[in-house]
Amino acid sequence: MKRIVTGIKPTGDIHIGNYAGAIKPALNFMKDNQLEPFYFIANMHALNSVKDTDLLKKQTLEVAATWIALGLDPQKATFFRQSDIPELFELNWILANLTSKGLMNRAHAYKAMVDQNNRADIDMDTGVNMGLFNYPILMSADILMFNADVVPVGKDQVQHIEIARDLAEQFNHTFGETFKLPNYYIEKEVAVLPGLDGRKMSKSYQNTIPLFCKPKRLQKLIKQIKTDSSLPSERKDPTSSPLFTMYQAFATADETLEMKRRFELGIGWGEVKESLYTVMNRELEKPRVKYEELIAQPAEIEKLLAVGAEKARSYSAKKLKEIKEKVGLL
Ligand code: ADP
Ligand code: TRP
């Protein structure tokens, strides 16, 4: 059995980029009985940006409801909340002591902040807290604790999986074979789903389409997607069109081929947008209703998470014992 591990941070409305890049591939993996999925809500990672008690709780429940509404079967997957697994934080510290500071200096989220500060000619670490700096170490603990073979993520997370591999090798080399080396999995066609403005769809750019927004709003947001001024009759390049990338994430292979052909013949942007709405709404209609039902019953979600935590801890407690013995802590 191969293990598959991924986490989503409860940092805001889940958008279709999160869905197409991370959640949908993870759910597709669940159809394979040879795989053992461990999916979780990365609320400890969210602490870095969410500093509001009620909001963190609310967003955590929303991420849980999203996974379940989209078809995650909690009987089949081990589905839990990161903060319910204290073993992760012990492993985080052990790994921190094998991590060179230089490696963290090069991690992209931190590096991006430093570059931004340098450009603004202010102290390079302005606005950087240790949660951000250590972020890749905790993420490595999440992955290595459950012996992940595969980690489905969006392209922006690849460097973190590579760091987890480095740390696993470092640990194995120092204390003997303990961790599997994880691989990332990227859904190729949607490696980076564009947002309304054509940049990567991201909560930080406020260019998102929330996954479960009401049909009217969905339609309105799709209309706002930036296009060029080419005429309907003009030939269009599907590879450079954000609309096409989004369409591909929701359409069948045949529908995608047909759309590609129509791009090459010339098609009006309005028509592409209508087709996009149709395929998106087709896929999201039922989960949207389920989501609304679930979110109205937070106690039920909590129950599921409690079962998930117990299941996850039956693995992590054993693994941590092995790790501590190797290190000399037990
Ligand atoms: P955001 O950039 O909106 O803050 P997160 O960093 O919380 O999103 O990402 C959660 C998961 O969704 C990650 O695996 C990430 O790679 C994936 N993801 C986020 N945005 C996109 C996107 N635009 N296209 C594809 N995958 C994405
Ligand atoms: N860092 C991931 C993100 O920003 C979330 C995450 C935390 C994660 N731990 C993980 C993803 C472990 C995969 C595996 O989206």
From TrEMBL:
Signal peptide: none annotated. L-tryptophan binds at D142. It catalyses: tRNA(Trp) + L-tryptophan + ATP = L-tryptophyl-tRNA(Trp) + AMP + diphosphate + H(+). It comes from the Bacteria. PROSITE patterns: AA_TRNA_LIGASE_I. Its EC number is 6.1.1.2. A motif ('KMSKS' region) lies at residues 200-204. Keywords: Aminoacyl-tRNA synthetase, ATP-binding, Cytoplasm, Ligase, Nucleotide-binding, Protein biosynthesis. A motif ('HIGH' region) lies at residues 10-18. ATP binds at K9, P10, T11, G17, N18, G154, K155, D156, L193, K200, M201, S202, K203, S204. One of its GO terms (cellular component) is cytosol. One of its GO terms (molecular function) is tryptophan-tRNA ligase activity. GO terms for biological process: tryptophanyl-tRNA aminoacylation. It is found in: Cytoplasm. Its main location: cytoplasm. PANTHER family: TRYPTOPHAN--TRNA LIGASE, MITOCHONDRIAL. Catalyzes the attachment of tryptophan to tRNA(Trp). Homodimer. Belongs to the class-I aminoacyl-tRNA synthetase family. This is Tryptophan--tRNA ligase.
